[in-house]
User: What shape does this take?
Amino acid sequence: MVRLSFFAMAMFANLAMSVAGPINTETYRELTNGFGQTGACRGNGGGGDRVDSRYRILPTQAECETVCDDDSGCVAYAYSGNGDCVIYGSGQDGTCSLTVDTGELDRYHNFNSCGECYQDGAVVEDALVKSLCGICSKETPAELTASLSVCSTVGGLWTEAAWTAGTWEDPPAGWAGDSYTHLTQYGSTNVHTISVAESYGCFDKVHEDGQATCTGSTADGSSCQTSFEDRRTSTQCPEGCTFYPRNGSHGPYCDGLASDGETSCIEGFETTDVFSEESCLAIDSQCVYVPAIAWTQPPATIHAPPADLGPGWQDVIRASVTTGDCTGRDSLPQCKGKDNLAGFEYGVCRLDTAGALNGENVNQKYCKNCINTNGDQVNLDEKACAQACLDDPSGSCIGFSHADNANCIVYGVNGEHYLRHPGDLDNQWLGYTLHDEPCIADKIPIGCTPKFNTIKMNTKFVCRHLNRDNTRWLAWGEATGSEEITVELTVTPSLSDPVGVKDFTQEMMNELRIKMASVAMVDADKDVSLEIGEGDQDGHVKVTFTIQAPSNVIIPMTAMINTILVSKSRDGALYFHSKLTTDNALQNSGELIPKAGHIAGILVKGMRHNLVDKSKELHTTSWSQLNPSACSVDPVDPEPVILPDELASGALRNMYNYLHL
Assistant: This one.
C-alpha cells in the first residue's frame, strides 16, 4: 500500500514529467505533424483517424515503452508528461468473439461492431453496428448513411433487422480500451501522423505501415524494401527540413520545419518520386509495389433521436438563429439549400452569444470510458450520460452533451474539479475551467453567465439540460422518504456595534427562509425552517436553516448547496446581503441580516456518496473567518489518503489535474 498525506499528494502532483523523445531510438521514431509539433498518435488521416488503443497511467516513459516492446501487436505508443501511456494497434482496445483475420479491415474491431446484422437470413455486410441494422421507409440524403437517426430526420419509419451480438473481451486488467467507433467504416491499424496535443509524444514502432512499400526480394536475394528505402536522400527533403539517415529498424526520413513555414516536411518528402511505383520496379522486376493506405473521410453520422429522459429534464436544446446560420456550413448536409437551421436539434451545448456562429463554451469535463452509478459506461447512450450528470459529486450539473458510444461531456459549477465519480476509481474525467460558468438557476451561482441555451450544430451530439427550478429534483426519480440538510450562518459584529438574536426581525427571518429556498430550489413554506440562536462565542449569532429533502435527492442537494455556499468560500455570504441575488451585493443591505452584522462563516451538513463503494454517508463542509483555515471538510484534520499501489500514480495525476486545470 502507498500512504500519502494530502500535502504530499499536492507536492508530488507538481512534479509532472516531461517527454523528450523515445528511449530506444533504433526501434522508435517520434512522429510530428510535419511542422515540428508533437502530439497523440493517429493513422494516415490525421486528427480524425483514431487508431484502436488501450490506456493507463504509468510512472515513467520507459515503462510505457517496455509494454510496447513486449507486445507484438503494438505499432506505436504515446506518452504524456502526466503519465498517460497509450498503446496503439489492432485489438489493443479488446477483442470480439466474432473476430476473423481480415487484415487491415477487421469488421469486429470495436465493442460497438461486435455483432452481426441479418436481413432475411443473410448477413448485411455494411451494417457494422446495431444502429445501421434495419431499413428506412423513406429515401435518405446521399451524403448520409441510412440509420435509425437519419431516418428520423426525414420522417421515415425505421424497421429493425436482426442483430446478433458477440462477446466483447476487454483489454488486460488495469488498462482501459479506446475503440475507433465510427459507424460506417473501419479505423486505421497503422500509426503515421499525430493530433497536436500539449505534453504528448507519439513514438512509432512500425514505420513503413503508413507509407508506400516495395515487397519481395531481388534476384540476388536482397530485400526490395531496404533498397527502396535507401533511395531516399537529403535531396528529397524540403528546404529547411532535417534529413535523418537510416537508424536501426527505421529507414531514412525527413522532419522539422520547412523554410517557407507552409510545407510539411513529412508530406513533402513522402510525395517525391522515390516513393513511387517506378522507383520500386526499377530495383528489380521481382519487387512488388504496395501503395500507401489511403484514408477516406467518413460520411456524416447522426446521433440517435433524443431520448425521453423523464421529469426534471428540459426538451432537447436546439440551435438558435445565431448558431443555426448555415453560412460556411458546407460540411453539414442539412444546410444545403438553406440559409438557417434555427431549431436544429443535434449539436454540442453552448452559450448563445451575439455574433458567435458556434456559440461559446462553458466549464466542463468529459470522459469516454467512465462508469456511472448504474454500472454503465457513460458514453453508452444518452441515458447513461444523463446518469453521469446526476452522479456529479458537485451536485451542480446543469446538462450534458452526448455522442453515441463516443463521448459524454458534463457541464456545471465546479464539476470540472471532481475528476472521479462515486464507485469508479479506475477512470477519471478530464476537466476544463477556462470558460464561462453557466447558471444552475437565475443568478445562481453569483457571477454565472446566462443564456446557456443553444448548440454548436454537430450531428454526432445531442444537448440536454436539467430544469432550472425546483422541478430539477424530479430527475432523480419520484420523491421517497424525508431527511434533513442543515445550513448554519455565523453572524458576527461587522464593526464595534454588537449584533444579537433580538436584532433579527420577523421580516428578516421570512426573507432568509425565502433566500435559502431559492438556493436549495425548494419550497420556502413547506421545506425550510429557521432558528436564530446565540453563537459559539459571545456576541455571535447562529442562523440555522433546516431543509427537508426527499431521501433520493439529499445527496445531490447537499452537494449543490455546498458548491454554492461553501466551495466558493466568501461568495456564499453575498446571497444573504440583500433580497435580490446579485454579484454587486458586496455590502450587507440590512434586509436579511442586521446592518451591524457580518457573515463570518457558513457550514453545510448533509449526505454524500462514498467515493469507493457509493454508499450514503454523513458529510459536513464549511468555511470560516474565525479560525486559521478558511475552508474545511468535516472540520477535523484530514486522515492521510491510503491507496492501493496500482492506483497511486492515478491519484497523483488526479490531484495534478485538480490543482492545475
About this structure: The first strand starts at residue 2 and ends at 4. The radius of gyration is 29 Å.
